[in-house]
UniProtKB/TrEMBL annotation:
Pfam families: WD40 (PF00400). It comes from the Eukaryota. Keywords: Repeat, Ribonucleoprotein, Ribosomal protein, WD repeat. WD repeats lie at residues 1-40, 41-72, 82-116, 123-155, 164-194, 246-278. The keyword Ribosomal protein applies. This is Guanine nucleotide-binding protein subunit beta-like protein. SMART domains: WD40.
């Protein structure tokens, strides 16, 4: 496996491959069913902080502290490079229609790119590192979370649409529900909060748990899962009911993803382990 901490994991849309990023400067591809290492992508010169895949599975995109965003073919070949950030890139998101890439950085900015690599727009306003970005399912808006504790919603065409200030600590992760209505955010303040997209933030549901570093929503919206500094995964229904706590890792859970069929949860943590879980809390495999 990786020789240093795993920073991010995703599952490809065909439900067959786990892709992981690491502080060892590599991206690795694993079989979801058998846990076998399928490929290792090398090219970054510093920590790889994030990875994403297109909905059609044709390309992967990775980014890191080397300020580079790399687009790879699904054959593992370096395709092209996106350059524009002046500090390390911390997060990326690809639109479902494969027309856009969004990135966030330690330079406090959010960049919007055409998928061919052309920089279209720079969104300025955050006062600290941008920790998480998400292109809304309708591809018309971008949500960003920041260490300054703010969540911002940007129009893809430019301009700030919404600012949400409902955390008392840095925001570590933001995701938007598949129906394009709700933002879920996780924070150092130990809460996961839900806000209505594009409207006045709700008096949000708060789920008191240890410092939360990652969150993922099941594509079928039947549950969501959080990863915390205590190494635990917590699975919730959307009414806020905790249905499962999994003592998953020794160390902070840095990244989470739910498989496209909503049948598996994949976690990655500071203990360098990538683990695949069934929603009932049983361990399927360790990579």
């Amino acid at each position: 496996g990786h020789i240093k901490e795993v920073t991010a994991v995703i599952v490809t849309s065909n439900n067959k491959t786990i892709i992981s990023a690491s502080k060892d400067h590599t991206i690795r591809l694993w079989g979801l069913d058998n846990g076998r290492l399928m490929d290792k992508l090398e090219g970054h010169t510093d920590v790889v902080t994030c990875v994403a895949a297109t909905a059609d599975g044709s390309h992967y995109v990775s980014a890191g502290r080397d300020k580079q965003i790399v687009v790879w073919t699904n054959a593992g070949k370096w395709s092209y490079l996106l350059k524009g950030h002046t500090e390390g890139v911390t997060c990326i998101s690809i639109s479902h229609d494969k027309k856009w890439i969004v990135s966030g950085s330690e330079d406090h900015n959010v960049h919007l790119w055409e998928f061919n690599g052309k920089l279209v727009r720079v969104f300025e306003g955050h006062k600290a590192t941008v920790t998480s970005v998400h292109i809304c399912p309708d591809c018309q808006a971008i949500v960003s979370g920041c260490k300054d504790g703010l969540i911002r919603v940007w129009s893809k065409n430019g301009g700030l649409m919404q600012q949400i200030n409902n955390h008392t600590g840095p925001v570590n992760a933001v995701v938007v529900t598949p129906d394009n209505t709700t933002i879920a955010s996780a924070s150092d303040d130990g809460t996961v909060r839900f806000s209505t997209l594009n409207l006045k933030p709700t008096s949000p549901d708060e789920l008191p748990i240890p410092e939360v570093h990652s969150i993922a929503i099941a594509p079928n919206t039947s549950f969501f899962v959080t990863g915390s500094i205590d190494g635990a995964l917590r699975i919730y229904l959307f009414n806020g009911r905790l249905v499962q706590t999994i003592e998953a890792h020794r160390g902070c859970v840095r990244s989470l993803v739910v498989s496209p069929d909503s049948e598996l949860v994949v976690s990655a943590a500071e203990d360098r382990r990538i683990r695949v879980w069934n929603p009932d809390g049983s361990l399927k495999t360790t990579l």
